Amino acid sequence: MTTVTQMKCACEACLCVVTLSEALEKDGKYFCSGPCANGHPDGSGCGHTGCECN
């Protein structure tokens, strides 16, 4: 049996892959950052290199 330890950030526009132990969980979904978890309320992205979500 394989245990999943990483998955893509649940934000659709985000390219980040998150380690579940470090991810922010909200409503059963895993996010790489606060802006992604909160739906980018102020238009800011996650700030990770190479990712342009917002």
UniProtKB/TrEMBL annotation:
Keyword Zinc: no
Top-level taxon of the source organism: Bacteria
Keywords: Metal-binding, Metal-thiolate cluster
Gene3D superfamilies: 2.30.170.10
GO molecular function: metal ion binding
Keyword Thylakoid applies: no
Pfam families: Metallothio_Pro
Protein name in the entry: Metallothionein
Source organism per UniProt: Gloeobacter violaceus (strain ATCC 29082 / PCC 7421)
